[in-house]
Design goal:
The protein is about 50% helix and about 10% strand. It has 9 helices and 8 strands.
Length: about 280
């Protein structure tokens, strides 16, 4: 999934309003469990609840231009999560079936790491394995670092220009001047939505802010992809964080988010484009 062109390029105050309204009004409906759309009255009430003004949202003739844009965004966010993302999220049995089907068809040589579970739950890291197999199958023999053990660095004249604060889950073709980098957030065995899961979203936000600074100040771009799954963790327990992901996508901090089965639908095309860029750079 990519950002909606209507909201790309919105200034920081727009997103400040998105966060404030979402916080005060609540991300989801307690009755339906669906991601909410807010009326203008509800947005104004959220501002009042936060001890903030409402004139930037409402005017003599109804909503201001900003208020209308916010209303359109909240409609989009709810529609894309309720109708597009939720049906694509998998839980462990679905992911295992897709993993085994791919492994049987592709006979991968790429690394397939194990999860950190014990006992009956121990085994392959299913989503990471799916990602690695699809990257290998579509990279046309180009080098890939499936598990970077170093920080991602961008250089100029063979000297470091920027080095990211965190290690990412994968880089194409490698962690020095990557064409693309990705992060995998799979939580199939999580039983509660704790700080570890929430921190995963904010880690991606940090990477995105560093890449934004690199892009704006140095003109250097790398495609930043977030891959997330677990219907129970993200939909049953963490819908507000799915909202934050959609916000992050449209703020430009990630270029693409692949939710659940979307990795099967979209990742091959992305990797083929990376491989073409790599070949063209040789």
């Amino acid at each position: 999934m990519r950002a909606d062109p209507r909201f790309v390029g919105q200034l920081k105050p727009f997103w400040a309003n998105v966060r404030t309204i979402s916080q005060e009004a609540g991300y989801t409906s307690r009755k339906t469990g669906q991601v909410r759309v807010y009326s203008m009255a509800e947005m104004a009430a959220a501002m009042t609840s936060a001890s903030l003004g409402v004139r930037h949202l409402t005017g003599a003739h109804g909503s201001t231009e900003l208020g209308a844009a916010l209303g359109a965004y909240f409609e989009y966010r709810a529609q894309v999560l309720n109708q597009y993302v939720e049906p694509r999220l998998m839980d462990v049995e679905d992911a295992r079936a897709e993993f085994e089907a791919l492994r049987g068809r592709l006979h991968p040589q790429c690394p397939i790491p194990n999860n950190k579970q014990k006992g009956e739950k121990a085994g392959p890291a299913l989503l990471t394995g799916i990602v690695n197999m699809l990257v290998e199958a579509n990279s046309e023999g180009a080098p890939v670092d499936y598990d970077p053990r170093e920080l991602t660095t961008f250089t100029r004249n063979d000297a470091p220009l920027r080095t990211l604060a965190r290690r990412v889950d994968g880089c194409f073709p490698g962690p020095v001047n990557p064409i693309a980098l990705w992060e995998v957030k799979e939580y199939y065995y999580t039983t509660t939505f704790g700080s570890r899961v929430a921190d995963g979203v904010y880690e991606t936000l940090l990477d995105g802010m560093e890449l934004e600074e690199l892009r704006e100040h140095e003109g250097v771009r790398a495609q930043h992809v977030l891959i997330a799954d677990s219907h129970y963790t993200w939909w049953e327990c963490g819908r507000s964080y799915l909202c934050r992901m959609i916000d992050m996508l449209n703020m430009g901090y990630v270029d693409e988010i692949l939710f659940g089965r979307e990795v099967l639908e979209k990742l091959p095309t992305l990797v083929k484009a990376w491989a073409k860029r790599y070949r063209d750079s040789l």
